[in-house]
UniProtKB/TrEMBL annotation:
This is Cobalt-zinc-cadmium resistance protein CzcB. It comes from the Bacteria. The keyword Ribosomal protein does not apply. Belongs to the membrane fusion protein (MFP) (TC 8.A.1) family. Residues 75-219 form the CzcB-like barrel-sandwich hybrid domain. Keywords: Transport. One of its GO terms (cellular component) is cell envelope. GO terms for biological process: copper ion export; plasma membrane copper ion transport. Transmembrane segments: none annotated. One of its GO terms (molecular function) is transmembrane transporter activity. Residues 306-349 form the CzcB-like C-terminal circularly permuted SH3-like domain. The lineage of its organism: Bacteria, Pseudomonadati, Bacteroidota, Cytophagia, Cytophagales. Pfam families: BSH_CzcB, CzcB_C. PANTHER family: CATION EFFLUX SYSTEM PROTEIN CUSB, SLR6042 PROTEIN.
Length: 376
C-alpha cells in the first residue's frame, strides 16, 4: 500500500515537470519565431545592411479631388434687349471669338421705328430749342408774357427727356445715336462679343424670333478658370489661403498644374464637405470647364524619425522592421508608419529607435526566412 502511494506521487511529479518543460518549449518556440537567424553566407547573399534612423523634414500631403469651374464674371449670356429675328450667325459651340467681333445680326421693324422716333425727336428738339431761346429773349424785354415763355421752356425740356430716352434705347439695341442720320436707317442690328473667349452654348437658329428674356449664346472667358475642390470637415483646419497645390487629371497624371488657394468656403454640404477654390498660375488651353481633376496639397513640414522605404516590410496587414540581435540574428518588430517622402518613411513606435541600428537593406529576405521557418 505504501509502495503504491509513493508510485502515485512520483508519477504526479513527473507529469507536472513534463508540462512545465513543454510549456517552456512552447514559449521559447513562440519567441524564436520573431528571430531570423542566418549564416554568414546568407547575410552576404541577402545584402543585409543596417543603419540608424535619421531625423528628416517631411511634408504630409492632402489628396483632394474636384473639377474646373469658371467664376460668374467670366461667363457671359448674350441676349437681345429689344428682341427680334435672328438674321445671320456663324457660331457653333467651341467657336473662338474676340472682343468686339460680330456674333449675330438681328432684324425687326421695331428697330426702324426706334430710329425714326429718335430722328423725329431730334428735329423737334431743335425747333423747340430755337422757340425757347426766342421766348426767353422776348420775355426778357417784356415783349411776351411769362406764360408763353414758361410753356416754351417746358416743351423744350420735355423733348430733351424724350430724345435722351430714345438715345439710350438705341444704345441698348446696339445702334450708335451719334452716327445715325436720315440716310443710314437700318432694319437690322449687330450683336458684338463683350469678351475674348469661346462659345459654350448656342440656343437659337436662323429665322427664329427671340424675346428679350431669351439667351442666344453663352460665352466663356477661359483665362480665369479656377479649380473647385471638395475638402472634408476634418481636413479644413489643415489648409489656408495662399497654399500651393499641384493639380492633375487621370489621363495625364505626370503633368502637374500649379495652383494657389484663393478662397475657402465657410458652408458645409450635407456630406460634410466644403469647397476650396484655387487659381491656376498659368492658363493652359487643354484645361476645360467641368473637367475633373485631382490635387495634392503640401501641408506644413515637420521633423520626424525616418527610415528608407526598403526597411519596412508588410506581412498580414501589419508593418515591421528588423533590428540586429547578436551575430547574424535579427528580431522583427511591429511599427506604425506615417508620411512617406523622397524614399524615406516616417516611423511611429513606442520604443526609442534614435540609437537603434535597423536593417535598411535585405528586410524582405529576413521576412522570407521567418516565413519559411514557421512553415517547417
Amino acid at each position: 500500500m505504501r509502495y503504491l502511494t509513493y508510485s502515485m506521487l512520483l508519477g504526479l511529479f513527473l507529469s507536472c515537470s513534463n508540462k512545465e518543460e513543454n510549456g517552456a518549449v512552447t514559449t521559447e518556440k513562440t519567441v524564436e519565431t520573431n528571430i531570423s537567424s542566418l549564416t554568414d553566407k546568407q547575410v552576404r547573399n541577402a545584402g543585409i545592411t543596417t543603419a540608424l534612423p535619421v531625423k528628416q523634414q517631411i511634408s504630409s500631403v492632402l489628396k483632394l479631388n474636384g473639377k474646373i469651374d469658371v467664376p460668374p464674371q467670366n461667363i457671359v449670356s448674350i441676349s437681345v434687349p429689344l428682341g427680334g429675328y435672328l438674321k445671320t450667325t456663324r457660331l457653333l459651340p467651341g467657336t473662338r471669338v474676340k472682343k468686339g467681333e460680330v456674333l449675330a445680326v438681328m432684324e425687326d421693324q421695331q428697330y426702324i421705328q426706334l430710329q425714326q422716333d429718335y430722328l423725329t425727336g431730334m428735329a423737334r428738339l431743335a425747333y423747340l430749342e430755337n422757340d425757347y431761346l426766342r421766348q426767353k429773349s422776348l420775355n426778357k424785354s417784356k415783349s411776351s408774357s411769362d406764360k408763353a415763355f414758361q410753356q416754351a421752356e417746358s416743351d423744350y425740356q420735355s423733348q430733351q427727356v424724350i430724345t435722351n430716352s430714345l438715345s439710350e434705347k438705341l444704345k441698348l439695341a446696339g445702334i450708335n445715336p451719334q452716327q445715325l442720320t436720315k440716310d443710314n436707317i437700318s432694319r437690322s442690328v449687330s450683336i458684338h462679343s463683350p469678351i475674348n473667349g469661346y462659345v459654350s452654348k448656342v440656343n437659337v437658329n436662323i429665322g427664329r424670333y427671340v424675346s428679350p428674356t431669351e439667351v442666344l449664346f453663352e460665352l466663356i472667358n477661359p483665362t480665369d478658370i479656377h479649380l473647385a475642390l471638395k475638402v472634408f470637415e476634418k481636413d479644413l483646419g489643415k489648409i489656408k489661403i495662399g497654399q500651393h497645390i499641384l493639380a492633375y487629371n487621370n489621363n495625364a497624371p505626370d503633368k502637374k498644374y500649379p495652383c494657389t488657394i484663393i478662397l475657402i468656403s465657410k458652408d458645409l454640404s450635407p456630406e460634410r464637405t466644403a469647397e476650396v477654390h484655387s487659381h491656376f498660375e498659368s492658363y493652359e488651353p487643354e484645361l476645360l470647364p467641368g473637367m475633373f481633376m485631382n490635387a495634392d496639397i503640401q501641408l506644413d513640414s515637420r521633423t520626424v524619425l525616418a527610415l528608407p522605404d526598403d526597411a519596412i516590410v508588410t506581412y498580414e496587414d501589419q508593418q515591421y522592421l528588423f533590428v540586429p540581435k547578436g551575430k547574424n540574428n535579427f528580431e522583427m518588430k511591429p511599427v506604425k508608419t506615417g508620411t512617406s517622402e523622397n524614399g524615406l518613411t516616417e516611423i511611429i513606435s513606442n520604443e526609442k529607435l534614435e540609437n537603434q541600428q535597423c536593417v535598411v537593406k535585405g528586410a524582405y529576405s529576413l521576412l522570407m526566412s521567418l516565413k519559411n521557418k514557421s512553415e517547417e
